[in-house]
Specification:
- 36% of the residues lie in helices and 16% in strands.
- It is of the alpha/beta class and 471 residues long.
- Helix 2 (26-33) packs across helix 4, helix 9 (146-157) runs parallel beside helix 18 and helix 13 packs across helix 14 (278-289).
Length: 471
């Protein structure tokens, strides 16, 4: 049994996990929107994987048309609210803002996007149009994460049926269970799921495909399948002490924070996190916020080689999290069957342990953020002819998301190996557009936005217009 225990009382735990950036007030949003130059060739649109008409929705906010702004966002990206909170806007749309090139702060696109879509989630008002024409075609989506949600929402918008199978109690994938609490509370993800359900998507939760429901049965009952199953369990260290009760995977630690009251989350006083990606940053920051006396990242490579975004790294340091680079775990130490420390070795420029360099760090809680395994075994059991690429990723046509098996599509982490929420939504949407063309012979193209800005964004926004494909 673990010796970990809750540290902060209820009020302090909730205060500690408040969101980093508060929502805009109305006047703040209008003022920020009026800074936008409404570029003719808007680079922010090109930087958005879902092709949101960013200048368009910002102009609507400037004229206090919040509902119209939300419609523009959610028609292009049904998870626009969560993406506003969790996507690296500083790297994507805000990183492309021309104001930054002119020695000004870029437009705060993420917070403006949140401002508009918050209103819709709060009121429950439906602003996304659904086609009154029904094709009679039915698609099964396995896994309820962002890729499946993006695909399912687009399918029902275009007049098809979509049924999402999710083995957990709630859909949403990492949006519901795996995002740092101070970035997005799980109820935001569930509100988006409810919005998608109101569009007409059917959710069947608590059903594990392959166990509760055979894949063959799905193939018989549905016209196509979309695989949005994500990744598997966290990778193991394969060192002594890894199975001690105070050793956890970062995904499980974050899921615990999302699925139970904050004041009941068990934690050590001295926490170490192994790895230095964005998930590791989420884990170490939350440990510190929830009351750990020390929270330290241990990484086998250099500071320059970490995969975490620079702004995430800066955030963790501002919260007094500590970092040790070029150290590798050798053994997790125990006293009376519980974690009491970790033995490390210094590493060389190739991240290999240096002989005779070992030393010990005291800790009572070890969190592993080493990435997740691929689902090769499960996928090949379901579809023996499915083609997998390097690292066990599902191989897909980059233009359609179709796999090596006709009628079977894939997106999200299982296909891209682990990218952003917005990338997963874009992949699901891409699959839905190709399915629509396959079902009806109609290709879906963006409306006049392309000529308005003189560019061709990935998908465009607004309402889609069907175009008959000859031949």
């Amino acid at each position: 049994m673990s010796k970990l225990k809750p540290i902060l009382p209820k009020a302090k735990a909730r205060e500690a996990m408040e969101e980093i950036k508060p929502a805009f007030a109305s006047q703040e949003a209008v003022t920020e929107a009026n800074r936008c130059l409404y570029c003719y060739d808007a680079p922010c649109i090109m930087a958005c994987p879902t092709g949101i008409d960013i200048p368009g929705f910002i102009k609507k906010i400037a004229y206090d048309n919040v509902k119209g702004a939300a419609r523009t966002i959610l028609t292009a990206n049904i998870l626009g609210n969560s993406c506003a909170r969790v996507c690296p806007t500083k790297v994507l749309c805000e990183g492309a803002c021309v104001l930054e090139d002119r020695d000004h702060d870029p437009i705060d696109i993420g917070r403006l996007q949140r401002y508009a879509t918050d209103r819709v989630l709060e009121t429950g008002e439906q602003v996304v149009a659904v086609s009154p024409l029904k094709s009679g075609k039915k698609v099964a989506l396995i896994g309820g994460g962002p890729a499946s949600l993006g695909c399912a929402a687009e399918l029902v918008r275009l007049g098809h049926e979509a049924v999402v199978f999710e083995k957990k109690e709630h859909p949403g994938g990492l949006n519901t269970y795996g995002i740092a609490y101070y970035k997005m509370k799980p109820e935001i993800s569930l509100a988006e799921v409810e919005m998608i359900e109101k569009l007409g998507v059917e959710f069947r939760c608590g059903i594990e495909v392959g166990t509760d429901l055979a894949v063959d049965k799905i193939l018989q009952e549905f016209d196509a399948v979309f695989l949005g199953i994500g990744l598997g369990q966290g990778r193991r260290l394969a060192i002594p002490g890894e199975d001690l009760p105070e050793v956890a995977d970062a995904i499980d630690f974050i899921a615990e924070i999302h699925s139970q009251p904050l004041e009941t989350v068990k934690l050590g006083k001295n926490v170490v996190v192994l790895g230095c990606g964005n998930t590791a940053i989420d884990a170490v920051s939350q440990a510190k916020r929830l009351g750990a006396e020390s929270a330290t990242i241990l990484y086998r490579r250099s500071e320059e080689e970490m995969s975490a975004y620079g702004f995430e790294y800066a955030l963790a340091k501002s919260e007094r999290c500590e970092f040790m680079f070029q150290v590798a775990p050798v053994e997790i130490l125990e006293t009376n069957g519980h974690v009491s420390g970790i033995r490390l070795a210094k590493t060389d420029s190739n991240a290999q342990p240096i002989t005779g360099s070992e030393f010990t760090v005291n800790c009572d809680h070890v969190i592993k953020a080493l990435g997740q395994t691929k689902m090769e075994k499960t996928l090949l059991e379901w579809f023996p002819k499915l083609k997998l690429g390097a690292g066990g990723k599902i191989e897909v046509d980059p233009l359609t998301q179709e796999t090596s098996i006709p009628g079977v599509y894939a997106g999200g982490d299982a296909a891209n190996g682990g990218a952003e929420v917005v990338n997963a939504v874009a992949e699901g949407k891409r699959a839905a557009l190709h399915l629509h063309q396959t079902f009806t012979g109609e290709a879906v193209t963006p409306p006049a936005q392309t000529t308005r800005y003189g560019i061709e964004p990935p998908f465009g926004s607004g309402f889609y217009e069907p175009v008959r494909v000859s031949g």
